[in-house]
Amino acid sequence: MCAAVYVLSTVTGYVLTSALLLKCPTLLHRRKRGTFLSRHISHRGGAGENLENTMAAFKHAVDVGTDMLELDCHLTKDGQVVVTHDANLQRGCGINADISSVAYAELPPYLCKLGVTFQRECFCEGGQDKRIPLLRDVFDAFPNTPVNIDIKVNDDKLIKKVSELVVKYDREHLTVWGNASNKIVKKCYKENPHIPVLFSFPRVLQILGFFYTGLLPFVPLKEQFLEIPMPSIIPKLVDPEKLTRTQRIITWLADTLLMRKALFKHLTARGIQVYVWVLNDEEDFQRAFELGATGVMTDFPSKLKDFMDRNGIDKTQ
C-alpha cells in the first residue's frame, strides 16, 4: 500500500511539474534571443513564381517583402559554393552530371520550365535569369535579409566554406543552417556554433517523444529553429486516388502528432522559431498560423504576402 501511494504521488508530482513547465518554460530555461523573426519565408526564393534558387527569384521575394530566403547549397568541382537544390543537374538543367564533378564556369543554365515540387501539376517558366548563383552573390545582393541554408550533402569542405562565407559577410546573426541529417547538423554546429542550427529529422522525432512523455520541459535544446512539414498537404501533392488506406492513416497520424498547438507554444516561449513547410494554399497558411507557427514557408511569396496583409499578420504577432 505504501509503495502504491509513493508511486502515485511521484507520478502525480511529475505530471503536474511537467504541465507547469510546459506552459511556463522560462521557469527552468533561459529564453533564446534571436536577432530576427521570420513570418514569411520564401522556399527556394519562391519556386512557384520564378525559377527556383535564382537571383531573380530571390530579388522578387525580397521585393514582395519576405522575411527570409530559404535556399540550398552544393560545392562545385573547383570548390565554389553554389545555390541549387539537386546534387545532379538532370532535373534542373537537363544534363546527367553531378554538380561536384563540374567547375562553376561550366555549369549549364536552368531549363526554361521547372516543376514546382510542392504544388501538383504546377510548372514555373523563367525569364532571363537561368543561372545557378553563388552563395556569395546572394549575400552581396541581400546583406540585411535572413537566409535559411540547407546543406544538401555531408561534405566537410562545403560546411567549412559556407561558414567562412557567413563569417566574411558578417551574417552569423542573419543565418540559420542545417539539414534533415543529424550528422550534418552536428558538423555545422561544431564548425561554427555561432550560427543557429535547425532541428534534424531524428531530433524532431526525439522532441516529439519528449513532448508526449512529458519530458520536453526538462530538456535543454541547443537548436533555435524547428522546420517541419504539414503532413495533411500530402494528398494535395499526389493523386489522392493513388494513396492506399495505410498511407492515409499514416498521414493522418503524422499530422495529428506533429501539428500540436501546445508544442508550438512551448517552443516559441523558449525562443525557438517554428516554421511549417511548404504551404501553398490559403487554408494551410491559416491553419499554420492558428496553431502558433512562427512562420510559413511557401513557393508563392506574393500569395502568402497578400494573405498576411488581408489577415493582419505581421512580425509583432
UniProtKB/TrEMBL annotation:
Catalytic activity: N,1-di-(9Z-octadecenoyl)-sn-glycero-3-phosphoethanolamine + H2O = N-(9Z-octadecenoyl) ethanolamine + 1-(9Z-octadecenoyl)-sn-glycero-3-phosphate + H(+); N-hexadecanoyl-1-(9Z-octadecenoyl)-sn-glycero-3-phosphoethanolamine + H2O = N-hexadecanoylethanolamine + 1-(9Z-octadecenoyl)-sn-glycero-3-phosphate + H(+); 1-O-(1Z-octadecenyl)-sn-glycero-3-phospho-N-hexadecanoyl-ethanolamine + H2O = 1-O-(1Z-octadecenyl)-sn-glycero-3-phosphate + N-hexadecanoylethanolamine + H(+); N-(5Z,8Z,11Z,14Z-eicosatetraenoyl)-1-(9Z-octadecenoyl)-sn-glycero-3-phosphoethanolamine + H2O = N-(5Z,8Z,11Z,14Z-eicosatetraenoyl)-ethanolamine + 1-(9Z-octadecenoyl)-sn-glycero-3-phosphate + H(+)
GO (cellular component) term, any one: endoplasmic reticulum membrane
Keyword entries, A-Z: Hydrolase, Lipid metabolism, Membrane, Transmembrane, Transmembrane helix
Gene Ontology MF terms: phosphatidylcholine lysophospholipase activity; phosphoric diester hydrolase activity
Subcellular location: Membrane
Residues annotated as domain GP-PDE: 38-308
Top-rank lineage group of the source organism: Eukaryota
GO BP, sorted A to Z: glycerophospholipid catabolic process; N-acylethanolamine metabolic process
InterPro entries tied to this protein: GDPD-Related, GP_PDE_dom, PLC-like_Pdiesterase_TIM-brl
Chief localization: membrane
Family that this chain belongs to: Belongs to the glycerophosphoryl diester phosphodiesterase family.
Name listed for the protein in its UniProt record: GP-PDE domain-containing protein
Gene expressing this chain: gdpd1
